[in-house]
Fold this protein.
Amino acid sequence: MKKPMNEINTDENALGVVDQPSQLAPEEQTQEVSEAQVAAILGKPAPAKKKAKKTTAKSEPKLEEVTPEAAEEQTTPEAPAEAPANEPLSNTEAKSEDTAETKSEGPEGAADNGEEHAQVVQLDSAHEEAPEDDTPLLKVVNLKEWFPIKTSIDKRKNVYLKAVDGVSFELRQGKTIGIVGESGCGKTTLGRTILRLYQPTDGEIIFEGKHIEKLKGEALRRMRPHFQMIFQDPYASLSPRLTVGEIVGEAVKTHKIVPKEQYKDYVVDIMLKCGLQPHYFERYPHEFSGGQRQRICIAKALALKPKLVICDEPVSALDVSIQAQVINLFKDLQESDNLAYIFISHDLSVVEHISDEVGVMYLGNMVEFGSKKDLFSNPMHPYTQALFSAVPIPDPDTKIKRIILQGDIPSPANPPKGCKFHTRCSKCMDICSEVEPKFKDYGDGHFVACHLYPQD
Ligand code: SF4
């Protein structure tokens, strides 16, 4: 039987798993942190006479004490007469908003002195207005991301690497979609394109009813706090020259999430929420273990109050006990903040644990999508069946029949005709090499693209 992630013993000391003993020593475990120490870190006068407070790596969230309401109270009188950030608008409206905002850059630059609070109000109000119950937070329609690898004057002769080639799905607030597939299938490119780190080649990305696939400049910058990314490598994704406080707070300042005077309190609260002690504020990333660094990355993403977080292999660089801690932190934060995740991973056990729905990608296409239960109990696509048959089961008495895929994954620059999987599929039929199968719903939102199932 598989052991649930939440039953894994996460006590590093009990397991004797400590990445860098010198760094993890006393402060990673339970600590006594007095309010006077916190006040000293924040540069405030020490409180009068209070008992020392016990804090642990999983400190209780204290965000409600800090900003949103307070910031709103302080800033409401200066609210601008602009439309709220999440008011639905069409593709064309998005364009015109972009143009209008670009034109008004001058006054906005000048407004740095006086309109900081106004922006705070706008971001907060955008965060509070939840979409309609059944409205997806994110809708991706036929999304394509092609990278040109050979260009010619005649555009028809251009050669493209089709990293993402027509992907569609919907994600609701507070839910998690796991994206799985072997290396090179386009998972990471999909995440980055949704986040608008790449300009999509074609298709639609609709976030809270707004088309964001063509947003540019200031309009895109103002949407950025709502969707964040946590990268695979917590060592490479943190600047070694910035302290933890600066790393977590940098974007808070840039996007004016809270007024200047509340900045330090806000950053410390986010750090506590992610299990980071207040005195880490002045420390540098090299002083921490992998698990703590990933917590810093999570705090950095959460500091902008996002609604959607794209997690790109966030635990694959961590050892198993730390993986369980970080995964549980993701789940706790999702519950408390109603976050939506797109969780990209190779690890099917982790995906099964954290996801509500799962999408399987192969060579830039989604070949199967459905609820976690449907997908894990009844995988329909031959590629999904092969992928899931490779999951090890920690029970020596259970026999599993491994499906070994023959051959290598074809090049996305020159994908096979028809079904892209036909070169490796043991159930391949004549039609498979000629006609591309439709991505069809076979009941309860279980989509599959395969000729083994009725296509009409
Ligand atoms: S369409 Fe044909 S080749 Fe593709 S997965 Fe289905 S059976 Fe295999």
Summary: The mean pLDDT is 76. The longest strand covers residues 138-150. Residues 320-337 form the longest helix (18 residues).
